[in-house]
Specification:
The protein is an alpha/beta fold and about 200 residues long. Helix content is about 35%, strand content about 25%.
Length: about 200
């Protein structure tokens, strides 16, 4: 019998990726104060990639306490743009401003994934993807936001690549699954190594 697998995230798309890969797992979203964890890291000069990894590990550790013996998957994603980091937009106006600022420019998505068992971190990984948005007009952004609605507020980049958000882009350099928030191939490889899923 395989050990229990737990996803420490309520993300619909992360759960969908694991289900589509044929995995059986429980979902137990971590309840951690991300801003409280981030603030001292930012003051200490941690990179956006490092912040993503710390947050992913904090989530997995918190959930691991509730699931003895289980392999717990923690994940987090941070968007790096022009030397800073962007968080999920607070409202549609913030999403509009963010998209117009990124128009015609490149940004990076750092998708961290961590596997923890019984409070021990077994593995950490970061998938970084470089994305270049095409130049677009304020009118296009308005139409895009009207089409996708509040879904833009659930993503750090104000887009979902698996939907109409793909039209915002000129080039994408990196792993598609990492853009969606879970470096799936690397994760599956590690879970097989740990005996958490069948090889």
């Amino acid at each position: 019998m395989m050990p229990e697998l737990v996803l420490a995230s309520g993300s619909r798309i992360r759960g969908e990726l694991l289900r589509n890969a044929g995995l059986r797992f429980a979902v137990d979203p971590a309840d951690v104060d991300e801003r409280a964890i981030e603030d001292p890291l930012l003051k200490s000069g941690f990179s956006p990639a490092d912040i993503a990894q710390v947050l992913a590990e904090a989530k997995a550790q918190a959930v691991s306490e509730r699931h003895p013996g289980a392999f717990v998957i923690g994940a987090d994603q941070v968007l790096e743009f022009e030397g800073g980091r962007l968080t999920k937009p607070e409202d549609m106006e913030a999403a509009r401003r963010q998209l117009l600022a990124m128009s015609g420019k490149r940004h990076e998505l750092h998708s961290a994934v961590v596997v923890v068992r019984d409070g021990e971190t077994l593995w950490r990984h970061i998938g970084t993807v470089r994305l270049t948005m095409r130049p677009f007009s304020p009118a296009f952004v308005g139409r895009y936001l009207a089409q996708v609605g509040d879904a833009v507020l659930t993503s750090v980049g104000a887009y979902q690549l698996e939907g109409p958000g793909v039209q915002l882009f000129e080039t994408i350099d990196g792993d598609y699954f990492s853009v969606l928030g879970l470096p799936l191939l690397s994760l599956l490889g590690r879970l097989r190594e740990e005996g958490a899923i069948e090889a």
